[in-house]
Structure formats: C-alpha cells, structure tokens
Amino acid sequence: MTKPHPPRDLQIVRASTEDIPAVAALAGVIWRAHYPGIISPAQIEFMLEKMYAAAVLKEDLTHRKIHFERLLAGREFIGFAAWGPGPAHHIGRLHKLYLHPDWHGRGLGSRLLQHCQDEARRSGMRQLILTVNKRNTKGIAAYTRNGFEVTAGVVTDFGGGFLLDDFVMAKDLGASVRQ
To answer: What share of the chain is helix, strand, coil (3-state, %, to 5)?
Structure first.
C-alpha cells in the first residue's frame, strides 16, 4: 500500500505560547506510539512530564530562546520541531523533531528538518547538533538520510532513575547567512 503524497496545503508556522497545550498533547500521542520498545512506559511518562509540562514549554519559548516550528496539513497539527542555541554561538541544537505516525513515510519529517536547518543557518549557525536514543533506529536512519553523522555516544542521568543512552549527531550547515 502506498502512502499519499504530501498535502498541497502544508505549512510550517512558528509556535507561540498559545500553542503550548497543542504541542504537549501531540507530543503525548507521538511518544506513546513511538517509544515503547525503545524506553519503558514509565520513562516515557516521566520524560513527557519533565519535557512537555506547560511551564517547561513556556520557559523554552520565552527564556531559553528555543523556537518551536509547527507542521500543519491544512488546519491539522501533525508535527513539530524545536531548535535553538547550542554549546557555542555558531552551533545550533535541534531539541525535538516529531511527526504524528499517521503522516510518516511522506518526506514531511525531512521537510520540517530542512526548515529548521535553514532557520538555524539564517540565524548565523554553521552546524546543527542533536541527540537521539541509540535504540531509535527510525530516528537515526532519518537523520542519516538528511546528512547528519554520529559524532559521539553519551549517557546522561535524566533523573527519576532514568538514563538517556544517546548518540550525538551533527551536520555542517555551510556558510551562515544572517538576514
């Protein structure tokens, strides 16, 4: 069975604080569908609570200078990404990139990722880095298809008795263009 082509009315729109409840709700749907078998159900719920609580998302948007990009098919909110400053002024970090499972396989995640890369480049960043769970083979494959390379492995204590066992991946964005 082939999947339909991407919708013609696809938009990527910068999120605002009014979008926080929708981002949190979509994250819950996606995480509960994607992460079983990668991390435990208890870790999924703990991480959703710590990363997608309204206060955390508001802090990300207003104080941490993280930009949330919403992917819309018509009026339907189907995915999102978050990017912002990284460990050095010319390095950006992709914090999140999620697409509702019903929309996988149509190149939409790659389109959203390309948008974030373009925005980061326009902001003066020359490289974009991210972390991805070592067992998230779909995510690793998607980032690799889009030119990211594994640069390191890291284990981080996330709290609550949970460890993050991740790869660091990076992609050079070329010369920065400030507008």
So the answer is: 35, 35, 30
All domains in the chain, ordered by first residue: 10-172 (3.40.630.30)
Burial of 172 (0-12, 13-18, 19+ CB in 10 A): exposed
- Residue 134 token pair: 């070592």
DSSP class of residue 82? E
Return mean pLDDT, the chain. Answer: 93
Beta strands (DSSP E) in the chain are: 10-14, 67-73, 76-85, 91-99, 127-133, 149-159, 162-172
Which residues lie closer than 8 Å to 20 by C-beta, 6 or more apart? 54, 57, 58, 61
Which candidate, 111, 108, 146, places its Cα nearest to that of 30? Answer: 108
Give the type of residue at 171.
Answer: K
Is 44:115 a contact under the CB 8 Å cutoff?
no
**pLDDT tens readout for residues 11-60:** 999 999 999 999 999 999 999 999 999 999 999 999 999 999 999 999 99
Question: What pTM did the predictor assign?
Answer: 0.92
